[in-house]
Amino acid sequence: MIEMQDVWKTYPDGSQALKGITVKVNRNEFLYVVGPSGAGKSTFMKLIYREERPTKGSIFVNGFNLEKLKQRKIPYVRRNIGVIFQDYRLLPKLTAFENIAFAMEVIEAPKKIIKKRVLEVLELVKLRDKASSLPTQMSGGEQQRIAIARAIVNNPTVIIADEPTGNLDPDTSWGIMKLMEEINFRGTTIIMATHNKEIVNTMRKRVLAIEDGQIARDQVRGEYGYED
């Protein structure tokens, strides 16, 4: 599903975010990416959906070599990757329905299919009653559920989640994690960067620890292992 081979990332200011990362993520896996702030976790995530490009090394996603990918193929690859952010990134003037639908309009899906699919994912995230609500009319947890619905509406093979519970209270965070687990159970690979020790230690999925730009641990049923 995803493979990095000797990946290095050096930014223009000379800072090295990643140093020789080699890792494979299999189809249907649930992977936590953990480590201290500034360790390289966000860069690791951005490389997968090609927001950043490596200085050296190879990255394969769904069989595509991202470094050799022609520009016209990038949107196609990104269609198969859903991204969830800590700050939701919903469009403020659009309703919950419209925010989710927008992800399908971009790929020019027919209106009939858009309506059916958006209602399906609203049902999945248990927010069908919020279809007409604006982001400002929803709680943080509800906004994150809409962001998740938007990320999965095009049936991606991979979800990249960067601190999806970072702005949420503990109870709401657990609700989001149960939803993420259900999405994973339905066949979507999930890669999630988090500082939430309790969630990682309770759910016991594969854990990839990044420290100083390098892989420090890769455990099948891992623990968080930090005191932040």
Protein model, in words:
It holds the Pfam family ABC_tran. Homodimer. Forms a membrane-associated complex with FtsX. Residues 2-227 form the ABC transporter domain. The protein has seven helices and ten strands. The strands form two sheets. A six-stranded mixed sheet has the order 6-7-8-3-9-10, with helices on both faces. Helices cover 32% and strands 26% of the residues. The chain is α/β, with parallel strands linked by helices. It has a single domain (30-50, 79-219), classed as Rossmann fold (3-Layer(aba) Sandwich), CATH 3.40.50. Strand 1 and strand 2 form a beta hairpin. It has helices at residues 41-48, 74-79, 96-105, 111-124, 140-152, 170-185, 197-203; strands at 2-10, 16-25, 30-34, 56-61, 64-65, 81-85, 158-162, 189-193, 206-211, 214-219.
Q: Short summary of the structure?
A:
It is found in: Cell membrane. The chain has a single domain, classed as Rossmann fold (3-Layer(aba) Sandwich), CATH 3.40.50.
Write the layout of secondary structure elements.
Layout (H helix, E strand, L loop, with lengths): L1 E9 L5 E10 L4 E5 L6 H8 L7 E6 L2 E2 L8 H6 L1 E5 L10 H10 L5 H14 L15 H13 L5 E5 L7 H16 L3 E5 L3 H7 L2 E6 L2 E6 L9
The number of distinct β-strands equals: 10
* Overall pLDDT score: 95
Share of helix, binned: 25-40%
Overall number of domains: 1
Number of helices: 7
Strand content: 25-35%
CATH overall fold name: Rossmann fold
Structural class: alpha/beta
Low-confidence stretches: none
Radius of gyration: 17 Å
Report the order of strands and helices: EEEHEEHEHHHEHEHEE
Q: Kindly provide the name of the CATH class.
A: Alpha Beta
CATH superfamily: P-loop containing nucleotide triphosphate hydrolases
For the biggest β-sheet, the strand order reads 6-7-8-3-9-10
CATH architecture: 3-Layer(aba) Sandwich
Query: What is the distance, rounded to the nearest whole angstrom, between the alpha carbons of the first and last residues?
Result: 31 Å
Give the overall shape.
globular
Task: Describe the sheet with the most strands.
Answer: 6 strands, mixed
